[in-house]
Q: What sequence folds into this?
C-alpha cells in the first residue's frame, strides 16, 4: 500500500488520481469528511475545478502562447494535474503543499498520470513557495489560490509571483464572514464590511475582489475582472493583473459602498472611499452600509465568450458549467445587487409567485430584468425597490 491511510483511485476530468477514502474518515453523519482526512480532497469542488480548466484555457488563448501555472495549495494535486492534462498550451505546472502527506499523494498522482516532465512539486509554505518565483523572469502566467477559508494571507505573494498580464484565480470558503455572520472577521481579512442582505453572496464576491484590488494597488498593479461566481459554499474570482500605477488607480476608482435600507429594500451604490449617506432617500430609515468593496463588473464580455467556446470543446465537464457561465455573463450587464422574491414575500406576508411572472410584470413596465446565478429565486433589475415590491404583490395575486 503506497500510503499510510485508506485511499481510493478516482477519475475526474482526464485525471486518474489517488485520494483519501473519505468514507473511512467520516465517523458521524454530520461530519465533513474532507476536513477529517489526512490529505484534502473534496469531490464537491469538482465544479470549481471544471470552471478553472475552462478559465485557464480561455486565458491561454488570450496569451496566444504556452503558459505556466502554479497551484500553491495543491492538496492531492487533482487541480494541477487536470491543468496539465486538459488545458492546451500548458508548458509547466508547479504544485506545492505544506502537508507532507499531500506532497506524497500528489507525487504519486503526478507519476500515475505520466506528468513527471510537466509538473514540478514542492513541499513548503505557500507564501515562501511563491516568493521564490517573484523575480521578473521567474514569474508564473497563472496562479490558482485554493485554500481553506480566506485566500487573503496569500494575496501579496501571489501578486508578486504573477507576471504582468497574468491570471490570478482565488477561492474563498469563509462565506460566513463574507456574508455578514462575522462582520469583524470580514473587515480584518478583506478590509470591508459585509451586510446580511438577501444578496450577501454578491457582496461576498465584491469584498473578495475589493481586497484583491487594494492589495494589488500597493504594488502599483491594476485588476481586470475576467469572471467571478459563487457556487456551493465558496466565492471564486478570476482576474488579470496589469502592472502600472494608472491601472491601479483605475481599479481603485471602481471601489465604493453599497447602501441598503432594510425597511423599504431600497439599495444604491456610492463610489469612492467617503460615504456620508446615512438615511434612506425613500423612507428616511437608517441605511446599512457595506464596503468598501468592488463596484465594477463581475465578468468580462470577451472572456465569457471565450469560456463558452471552450466549454463546447472540453470534454467531461459538469453540465452546470455552461449554465453558470451564461448566467454570470448575462447578469454582468445588470446593476449591483438583486432582489429575492421569497424574502420580499416574507416581508409583505404573501405567498411567493413564480419568478417568471414577476419578471414579466417588470418588463411590461419597461424595466430590464436578469436572472442571477447567485440565487434561483433572485431578480437583478433596474427597477426601484418600490416597483419590484409592487410587481411581486401583483404577481402573487391569483389571476382572474
Ligand atoms: C482546500 S485544500 C486544496 C485543495 C486543492 N486545491 C484542490 O483543488 O483539490 C488547501 C490545501 O492547502 C494546504 N495548506 C494549508 N496551509 C498551507 C500553507 N501555508 N502553505 C502551503 N500549503 C498549505 C493544505 O495542506 C491543503 O492541502
Ligand atoms: Zn428605505
A:
Amino acid at each position: 500500500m503506497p500510503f499510510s491511510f485508506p485511499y481510493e483511485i478516482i477519475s475526474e476530468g482526464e485525471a486518474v488520481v489517488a485520494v483519501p477514502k473519505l468514507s473511512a474518515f467520516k465517523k458521524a453523519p454530520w461530519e465533513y469528511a474532507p476536513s477529517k482526512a489526512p490529505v484534502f480532497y473534496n469531490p464537491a469542488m469538482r465544479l470549481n475545478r471544471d470552471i478553472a480548466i475552462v478559465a485557464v484555457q480561455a486565458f491561454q488563448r488570450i496569451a496566444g502562447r504556452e503558459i505556466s501555472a502554479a497551484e500553491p495549495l495543491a492538496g492531492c494535486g487533482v487541480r494541477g494535474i487536470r491543468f496539465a492534462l486538459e488545458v492546451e498550451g500548458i508548458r509547466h505546472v508547479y504544485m506545492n503543499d505544506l502537508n507532507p502527506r499531500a506532497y506524497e499523494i500528489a507525487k504519486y498522482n503526478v507519476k500515475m498520470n505520466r506528468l513527471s516532465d510537466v509538473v514540478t512539486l514542492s513541499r513548503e509554505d505557500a507564501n515562501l513557495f511563491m516568493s521564490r518565483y517573484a523575480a521578473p523572469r521567474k514569474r508564473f502566467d497563472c496562479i490558482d489560490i485554493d485554500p481553506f477559508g480566506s485566500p487573503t494571507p496569500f494575496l501579496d505573494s501571489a501578486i508578486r509571483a504573477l507576471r504582468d498580464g497574468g491570471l490570478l484565480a482565488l477561492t474563498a470558503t469563509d462565506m460566513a464572514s463574507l456574508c455578514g455572520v462575522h462582520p469583524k472577521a470580514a473587515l480584518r481579512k478583506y478590509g470591508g464590511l459585509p451586510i446580511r442582505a438577501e444578496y450577501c453572496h454578491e457582496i461576498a464576491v465584491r469584498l473578495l475582489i475589493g481586497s484583491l484590488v487594494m492589495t494589488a494597488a500597493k504594488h502599483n498593479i491594476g485588476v481586470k475582472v475576467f469572471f467571478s461566481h459563487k457556487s456551493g459554499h465558496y466565492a471564486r474570482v478570476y482576474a488579470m493583473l496589469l502592472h502600472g500605477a494608472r491601472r491601479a488607480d483605475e481599479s481603485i476608482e471602481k471601489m465604493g459602498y453599497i447602501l441598503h435600507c432594510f425597511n423599504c429594500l431600497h439599495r444604491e451604490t456610492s463610489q469612492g472611499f467617503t460615504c456620508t449617506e446615512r438615511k434612506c432617500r425613500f423612507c428616511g430609515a437608517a441605511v446599512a452600509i457595506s464596503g468598501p468593496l468592488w463596484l465594477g463588473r463581475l465578468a468580462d464580455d470577451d472572456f465569457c465568450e471565450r469560456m463558452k467556446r471552450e466549454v463546447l470543446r472540453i470534454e467531461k465537464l459538469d453540465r452546470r458549467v455552461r449554465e453558470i457561465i451564461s448566467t454570470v455573463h448575462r447578469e454582468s450587464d445588470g446593476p449591483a445587487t438583486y432582489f429575492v422574491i421569497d424574502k420580499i414575500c416574507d416581508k409583505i406576508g404573501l405567498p411567493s409567485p413564480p419568478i417568471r411572472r414577476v419578471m414579466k410584470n417588470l418588463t411590461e413596465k419597461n424595466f430590464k430584468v436578469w436572472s442571477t446565478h447567485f440565487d434561483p429565486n433572485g431578480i437583478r433589475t433596474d427597477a426601484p425597490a418600490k416597483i419590484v415590491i409592487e410587481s411581486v404583490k401583483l404577481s402573487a395575486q391569483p389571476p382572474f
In short: The longest helix spans residues 200-218. The pocket of zinc ion (ligand 2) is lined by residues 261, 263-264, 266, 280, 282-283, 285 (CB under 6 Å).
